[in-house]
Every structure is written in C-alpha cells, then in structure tokens.
Specification:
The protein is α+β, with helices and mostly antiparallel strands and 592 residues long. It is 51% helix and 19% strand. It comes from Fictibacillus norfolkensis.
C-alpha cells in the first residue's frame, strides 16, 4: 500500500502539473497560429487598401498638368511667344500660374520649359522666376527618357530639391527631398511637342500611405518603381537609391521562418511598381512567447512549492502534539499571531480551537489599547501642527506690510502685498479657481520678478471676459510662467517676450503660454521632451525630469481625461509654447 506522501505526489503530477503544462503548450500553439493567420489576413487587406490609395494618389498627380489645356492663359505660354502672352494679360497669366502652384499643398516647385524659345522659368513659393535659356535641358537623363518615351509623363525618384534656373527665389537652405513628375506638353490635335512641365512634390502625402502599412509593430514597408529604385521606405536612408542586394534577395524569397513578406504590384500610372511589407516573425510572436515563458516559469515554481508542501505535511502529520507544543511555547515567547488549523476534528483540533479563542481575546485587548495610544498621539500632533498655520504666516506678512507702509516704503509694501496674495492663493492650491484668480496670481508673481531682476519685463496677458469667468484647476498657468524665468530669463534672454492668452473656440478653452526667444531646442530635444511628458511614471521616466510640465499634464488628465490636450512646440523654430485645450464646462466634481 502506497504512503500518503507518494500518493500526494502522484496526484499533484497527474491532476495539476501535467494538465497545467499541457494546457500552456496547447494555448501557445493555438495562439501562435491564430496570430499568424490574423496578421497575414490583416496585412493582405491593408496592402490592397494602401495599394489602391497609392494608385489613386499618383493618378491624381499625373493628371494634374492637364489643367494647362483648359487654361488659355497658361497654354498660350507654350503656343506663342512668352512676351506676347504676358503682353496681352500679364496679371492673368501670373495669377493662373500661382493658382496652379497652390492647387496641391505638396507642390514645392514648378518648372516650365518652352521649346519655342528653348527657355524655362520656375515657380517656388508661389513666386515666378525670370526666364533663362536652357537649350541643354532635353539632354538631361530623365528628360531624355521622357522625350523618347511614348508616355506623356515620367516620375523621377526622390532627390533633394534642385534650383533648376539658379533662381534667387529658392534659398540654399532648402534641402527638402522631393519627387519630380515630368510631363510633356503637346499641341492638340497636331501632337506637336511644345515643352515640358516639371512638378516637384514633397513626399509627405504618399509617404503617409506607405508608413501606415508598416504600423508600429516593427514592420517595414517599401515602395519600389519598375526600375528597382526605392521611391519610399520606412528606413528613410534608402529613399531615392536602388534596392540593395540583400533587400532584393529577401523580397524575392518572400515569407520565411524569420519574417513574413507581402508584395503587391501596382497598376495605373505607377504600373510595374511594387508595394512591399516585411514583418519579423520574432516581433509578431514576441508577446505570445513571453506569455508562454512566464506561465512555464510560474508553473515550475508552483509545482516545486507544491512538492515541498506535500513533503512537509506528510512527514509532520505523525507529530501533531509536538507542533501544538511548539505553538504554545511561541505564544509564551510573545508571538501572538500563530496560525491554527480550523478543520481538524480530533483532540488536537479541539485544543487548537480553544487556544485560538484565547489568543484572539488577547489580540483584541492589545489592539484596543494600541489604537487608543495611537489616537492620543495623533491628537497631540494635530494640536502642535495647528499652532503653525499658513494663516499665521499670511497675517504676519500683512503686519510687516503695514510697518513698511508706515516707514514710507511703498515699494516694499507692494512686494509684500504681492507675496501675501500668492500665499493666499497657494492656500487654495487643491481647489478650482476662476481664470481671473489665476491671472491675478500671475500678476503678483511677475511683480515680484520685476523687483528681483530690476529690468523691464516684456510680457502680455490677453484674456477675454468669457475666459476670465471660466474655472480651471488652480496653479495651472503659473508654473508655465515660472518656467519662462527659469529657462529663458535667468539664462540671459532679457529681450524675450512672454505672452499668455486665453480664448474660447467652440466648447473648448484654449490657454497658451509662449515666448519668442530662448535657448535653442533641437527637434530631437523637443521630441524627447514630449515623450517624457506623455509617458507614465511607471514606464521609466525620471521623477525630476520636466516635473513641472508633467505635473500639469497629469492633473489635466486626472480632471478631464481624454478631453484635455497638452501641446508643447517650438513655433517658427525659435522660442517655446505650451497650449492647453480643455472643455469650457465641467459637470463632474473636480479632482485636482
């Protein structure tokens, strides 16, 4: 006959450990297959949708130059002498050119080549350049390809924007990457070649379509033309280059054990182009494997702990009296919190229940006396704390101000008055206040800073009456004003202008604190600042980094949830601005 110890071990293995691990492996296999199937189907549908969007986008852009044929003023530039067309209606021609330039936001530059006079001119920033002879233009590589082609257009891979005519209207600092669409202009119906119009468009619009395909799960996306050149890639360093050999090999192999690869060949104006999405398998199944690993580790721990517990109970079950005696000795030593078995029905169980009742009565008596002692100490602490109250400090400041006034020191009195206003307001830091109260607090703070620096501060506070009557969590705007002095004024930018505005747009209240000068902030610094503000503390953000901005953001989220926006930016590449967007009315009880 098997022992209790061995039977318990077999039961644990047979009814707990084996089914537990078997369930984990089955769930992992099923989840892995489900995730793979879902991801494949989802990726295929998304690939089809993005391919249609790309075809439609390039169809719109390729057909855009046909507007020229419907505009007599523009088309006359190609069919007649340029001077004659300008002579007849110069304003109308320039207006038509500017209107065409502004047709799409992504158009960065236009070039018009007139074959009649072998001249060309450009349009940049809605400004028309002077005409210059350019007889060698038809010998340029992509123009030559277009001229010899049966098609009316040619799409040149992305490149840095060029100053085609060395026109002064294009700054040297503009290093924007653009995609060029060259379009033949012909006479209808003779099909006579009249010239070429080139559109330089930014990559922003169609890059969004390709980037959306990649998503945020570690996937990469590529748009390749029929010449095996990269028109766009999530790895922006590859844009405009030929497809590397290793990437070409991976695309040809398709889906492997290491990555899932999907390819879609495009039609329409981009016939022969390919849209490719590649997703690493380890990224796709990372969460599934992590969950399975954790479950296995927990299962091993639970199994090991179970074995130890069963072994301990089986060996000690024959010595209950010794255990009871040990518990009594521990009680004698002052250890009151001793665990007792409740379900035991033999004599040992009867003794344990009586001992437990006795220890419970002792614990109740001790707890009652202990809590009374703690409450007495708390009352003593409250009495001591109430002797030093913020109201005492506020009244003391008022007394000092009165002495300063009697001593004919109005400036000191004014500063003390400003400080006392700030103290009175800070006593209500956990309350909701009107924007008018917040503005008064800022004015008192600015008055103190004026006396501190001894220089003229450049600031403006602009709020409508409707905004001033609105209620917001206290201490929302003042920390932003304090940041201005900490990061701008104290750094020596004394000519910086601080502007605090508030306005109502629809059902939202817009509060903006900005300055027009200060330390330079790079794009990466700004991105890092935004990440630290919006990231929760549990994700690893240092407690002392950008704590002021982060506290304001967290308080807004606490009170308004997703209805609040907190935006930091560097307008026009200089200065700094913070925009707070919150609902104008709040029906719930504020949290602050």
């Amino acid at each position: 006959m098997k022992s209790i110890h061995s039977r318990l071990l077999l039961m644990l293995l047979g009814f707990i450990i084996v089914p537990y691990f078997l369930t984990i492996f089955l769930i992992y296999a099923y989840t892995k297959n489900s995730v793979e199937e879902y991801e494949l189907n989802n990726s295929k549908m998304q690939l089809e949708k993005n391919a249609e969007d790309l075809q439609q986008y390039f169809d719109d852009m390729v057909n855009l130059p046909y507007i020229l044929y419907r505009n007599p003023d523009l088309f006359r530039i190609f069919t007649e002498e340029f001077e004659d067309s300008i002579y007849f209606d110069q304003d109308s021609v320039e207006k038509s050119i500017e209107t065409f330039y502004l047709t799409r936001n992504e158009i960065r530059q236009l070039r018009f080549y007139l074959d009649e006079g072998k001249e060309s001119f450009t349009v940049y920033n809605a400004t028309v350049s002077t005409r210059k002879p350019q007889p060698e233009l038809l010998n340029q590589e992509h123009i030559k390809q277009l001229f010899k082609s049966n098609k009316n257009y040619l799409i040149e891979p992305p490149h840095v924007i060029k100053n085609y005519n060395n026109a002064a209207i294009i700054p040297e600092s503009d290093r924007t990457k653009v995609l060029s669409i060259h379009h033949k202009i012909k006479e209808v119906p003779s099909d006579k070649f009249l010239g070429i119009m080139t559109m330089d468009i930014s990559l922003g619009e169609y890059s969004k379509i390709v980037s959306n395909l990649a998503g945020e799960n570690g996937s990469s996306a590529y748009l390749l033309n029929d010449q095996n050149e990269i028109m766009y890639a999530t790895n922006t360093s590859l844009i405009g280059k030929r497809v590397p050999a290793d990437l070409q090999s991976r695309i040809q192999k398709g889906t492997t054990d290491k990555e899932i690869s999907l390819t879609k060949t495009l039609n329409g104006p981009v016939e022969g182009w390919k849209l490719v999405k590649k997703t690493p398998s380890d990224v796709l199944f990372r969460d599934v494997r992590k969950t399975a690993t954790i479950n296995i580790i927990v299962g091993l721990g639970v199994g090991l702990l179970g074995l130890l517990m069963i072994s301990f109970i089986s060996y000690k079950i024959s010595r209950p009296i010794r255990e009871l005696s040990e518990k009594v000795r521990r009680i004698e030593g002052g250890h009151i919190e001793i665990p007792f078995e409740k379900g035991r029905q033999d004599e040992i169980g009867h003794l344990e229940r009586h001992i437990k009742d006795m220890t419970d009565r002792i614990n109740l008596h001790i707890n009652r006396e202990y809590k009374l002692e703690i409450e007495n100490r708390r009352n003593q602490f409250r009495a001591l704390k109430s002797q030093v109250n913020p109201h005492f400090l506020f009244n003391a400041l008022q007394s000092i101000g009165a002495v300063a006034l009697r001593s004919k020191s109005p400036q000191v009195y004014g500063l003390i008055t400003s400080l006392s206003k700030m103290m009175r307001y800070s006593m209500q830091a956990n309350q909701w206040m009107s924007v008018q109260n917040e503005v008064d607090y800022m004015k008192a703070y600015l008055n103190l800073q004026q006396a501190r620096f001894g220089k003229e501060l450049h600031y403006s506070l602009e709020f409508s009456d409707e905004v001033l009557e609105s209620r917001i969590p206290s201490m929302t705007l003042q920390p932003l004003v304090e940041n201005f002095f900490k990061h701008v004024y104290e750094e020596g930018y004394y000519e910086a202008q601080l502007t605090v505005t508030g306005e109502v747009k629809g059902d939202s209240l817009y509060l903006v604190v900005k300055n027009n000068d200060g330390p330079e902030i790079t794009a990466s610094d700004l991105e890092h600042l935004q990440e630290n503000i919006y990231r929760s503390t549990s994700e690893g953000t240092p407690v002392n980094e950008h704590i002021g901005l982060k506290n304001i953001y967290q308080r807004l989220i606490l009170n308004y949830g997703t209805r609040a926006d907190f935006l930091v930016d560097q307008p026009n590449g200089q200065g700094f601005s913070v925009t707070i967007v919150i609902p104008k009315e709040l029906s719930d009880e504020p949290t602050v």
